[in-house]
Amino acid sequence: MAAADLVGRTGARHFEIGYLDDTPPHRWYAHAQYRGARITCENQPDPVAAAEGLARQLLTGAQCQHCGRLVTLNPAGAYAHDSTLMDGRPWTAQQQTDAGVCYWRRRGRTWVRGCEGHWPVDAPTRRERRGARRQQRRRGTR
Predict the structure, then answer these.
(1) Percent of the chain as helix, strand, coil, to the nearest 5
(2) Can you give the pLDDT at residue 54?
(3) CA 114, CA 119: separation in Å to the nearest integer?
(4) How far is CA 32 from the centre of its chain?
(5) Interatomic CA distance for residues 67 and 36, integer angstroms
């Protein structure tokens, strides 16, 4: 679910998970289709691994649209080097050092960005918050 949510948030026009072989063991793939590109993760042992691999591929080399920093999946940060972002723009080591990094991580059924400073690591999930609000409305304590 987290991968499907992330693919939708990145603006994909199509998301698909399937397997490559008709005979077990299946090799699973996941791909997201955009206007001019298709991002694929394949040869995975199960559909969850394929979806998770695709999500990690989409985040690696991306720029956070909220804070403008380079996305990292490593809590220790990222090594600055000249590279190309997922959208094809060149990104220098100096630009990365100046901008900093935004640490993205999985929380439950969604990926959250590090620049959401008001979300501590042990905060309730979106589903838990909705459930709590629903119960408050039923009790009339909201």
Answers:
(1) 30, 25, 45
(2) 95
(3) 9
(4) 12
(5) 25
